[in-house]
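Lab notebook page, bench 4
Experiment: in silico fold of construct C2
Operator: M.H.
Input chain length: 194 residues
Purpose: comparison with the prior construct
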Amino acid sequence: MIILLVAAGYLLGSIATAVLVSRMLGVADPRSGGSGNPGATNVLRLAGRKAAGLTLAGDILKGVVPVLVARAADLPPGAVALVGLAAFLGHLYPAFFGFRGGKGVATALGVLLAMEPYLGAAVLATWIVVAGVSRYSSLAALVASVLAPGYAWALSGDRGVVGAVALMAVLLVWRHRANIRRLVAGEEGRIGRA
């Protein structure tokens, strides 16, 4: 049962919402413009709020749905976390799109909200505060990612949950390495600016 749900989580995560939304709305493939990242932020730049909102909702749901199914199957917290991690990895390395995925922020948030609502809320609140103060989406994602394992330890305490969250945090930071370079150089785009 666990193996089946992990595989299903990965396959659901592999659905590139940004690409599908762009095709549905007849706009440019986000992988071919802007930052080249198939995520909501790049879709916002290229296609506007409607497309970005649909992409964000889809990416969050890719994290929520498999975790809720795993919880409904009465799996232990560590196994639920593994299913969520699989969905997150599917978003980063999608089987259906040449293993070129997004950065994973929205899908990770969906996983956390469904797995441990207080944990997800703490991470989301951190993102909102940092983004509101700095106007940098990437910086907000990085700070929230770095703090997430500590939140998981404080709010869950389950080693499987903490381990999965820590691995997601490491991968999120890794996927943002170009953003880190731009932040250091003062070249990163702010929220609300192209």
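Observations: The CA atoms of residues 45 and 194 lie 6 Å apart. The chain is about 75% helix and 0% strand.
Next step: discuss at group meeting.
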